[in-house]
Write a structure and sequence with these properties.
CATH architecture of the largest domain: Beta Barrel
CATH class of the largest domain: Mainly Beta
Shape: elongated
Radius of gyration: 21 Å
Order of helices and strands: HEEEEEEEEEEEEEE
Number of strands: 14
Number of helices: 1
Structural class: mainly beta
Strand content: over 45%
Largest sheet: 7 strands, antiparallel
Helix content: 10-25%
Strand order of the largest sheet: 6-7-8-9-10-13-14
CATH topology of the largest domain: Porin
Distance between the termini: 14 Å
């Protein structure tokens, strides 16, 4: 238990340091006439034709100059005094995640695959409440459904957060017998806590890095 607490504290400190470093940097901003904003590093620009920008997650975007409102170089803004000034506006949120699970070495799958979707609401204080469902391909496939709680700590475009999940996982394979052997599958509760980092690259779109 103490080792888990130390690991969680170390991860949280690392995320906060990463946020501070990113917020201190000057970042190129491409403002589109559609209202979207792409943040990253401009790779190429032709004042009469196009602009090419690599966002904070490494994706490369190409836009015609006719669709661009303005191009600036700005630092990340941080609001540490008012939670309502967080860059992620309140409203309904969908989060879809793909990942690989780590656990017991007795599992038949070397890297069990996980597909999870969470839908919920983010309020003006940075608290997200949602419900998640998905499928996890372990030695037996399971359907997890759970309550997802997240709290944004600080920041605007780069936001560290804490997360807690709790629910139940149901096997997708029915009980059966084979060669006079009875196979019985049961579900069980699932609980997890962790920390994460949201990196916004466009309006209403962000990448999440999360450790549970």
């Amino acid at each position: 238990m103490m080792n888990m607490l130390r690991s969680g504290l170390l991860i949280a400190v690392t995320l906060l340091l990463t946020t501070s470093i990113l917020e201190a940097q000057e970042v190129d901003h491409v403002y589109l006439k559609s209202g979207s904003v792409i943040r990253g590093n401009i790779m190429e620009i032709d004042p009469v034709d196009h602009v090419k920008i690599q966002d904070l997650c490494g994706n490369i975007w190409y836009y015609q100059i006719a669709t661009v409102e303005k191009i600036t170089s700005e630092s990340y803004e941080t609001s540490r005094l008012k939670k309502e000034q967080l860059g992620f506006e309140k409203g309904f949120v969908n989060m879809t995640s793909l990942g690989f699970l780590a656990g017991s070495s007795n599992n038949m799958q070397v890297a069990p695959f996980s597909l999870i979707m969470v839908n919920g609401y983010l309020n003006s204080f940075g608290l997200f409440t949602g419900v998640g469902v998905g499928v996890e391909f372990l030695s037996t496939n399971y359907l997890p459904f759970f309550l997802d709680l997240r709290y944004d700590l600080t920041g605007k475009d780069v936001v560290p957060y804490i997360v807690a999940k709790g629910g139940y996982s149901v096997p997708l394979i029915p009980d059966h017998s084979e060669y006079d052997i009875e196979y019985t599958y049961t579900g069980g509760p699932l609980v997890g806590v962790g920390v994460g980092l949201k990196i916004r690259t466009r309006n209403h779109f962000a990448w999440d890095i999360e450790m549970m």
